[in-house]
């Protein structure tokens, strides 16, 4: 199933005084309900691609699993919109302080649930990885050039696992949280260690995004977009380097600038 709705939507496009009928490519939106050990756990509104990565990453982000090996079986049925997951150690609904939820594609979940879940699995990062200013700019350029879906629709987010010199793989979704969960799921399923890796991201870095990065064990996140105050406070506490507004030859380093080579030492003083 494509993450771009085909063949497109009949649209009236206006530019200045010119008007025309066009077939416009738009991003597909898909509800996926997770059935965990026979119980309805959540419905995620997402893009219909790399769904197994999304399910695994989402469960890890929620603190349900720590490794992919904890999953006994996983089935994703795009025709019915259900994913059935069985764990080696089955869970009961009362193990998680929530009822079944709708997880929107953009805004994440209720802060009450988010903090209860994340308090168990967020961790301080001690990564010794370093990057140069030029490497940051080149990685963001590669991310933005790697998404034909964004070029066609303008309606998706991209996240990539990378080394300082190259993108290892990219995941795309209408939801920025979903894109990161897909990266997390791919790391877990592929047994890819976080050591020596960073994340390149198109979306805003909120506190929820920052905590996902912490759970992944990543020490550096590069974002094209803005950050929030709670995100940078958490990043400072958890030892994560946050770089935002990375566009062209511009970037803002908010936390842990010691991991970025080429910065004037005078600017790093408190």
TrEMBL record:
InterPro entries: Cytidine_deaminase-like, FdhD. The keyword Cytoplasm applies. PANTHER family: FORMATE DEHYDROGENASE, SULFUR CARRIER PROTEIN FDHD. GO terms for cellular component: cytoplasm. The gene is fdhD. Keywords: Cytoplasm, Molybdenum cofactor biosynthesis. Signal peptide: none annotated. This is Sulfur carrier protein FdhD. SUPFAM superfamilies: Cytidine deaminase-like. One of its GO terms (biological process) is Mo-molybdopterin cofactor biosynthetic process. Gene3D superfamilies: 3.10.20.10, Cytidine Deaminase, domain 2. HAMAP family: FdhD. It is found in: Cytoplasm. It comes from the Bacteria. Required for formate dehydrogenase (FDH) activity. Acts as a sulfur carrier protein that transfers sulfur from IscS to the molybdenum cofactor prior to its insertion into FDH. Belongs to the FdhD family. Mo-bis(molybdopterin guanine dinucleotide) binds at residues 245-250. It comes from Oceanobacillus indicireducens. The active site is at 107 (cysteine persulfide intermediate). Its main location: cytoplasm. One of its GO terms (molecular function) is sulfur carrier activity.
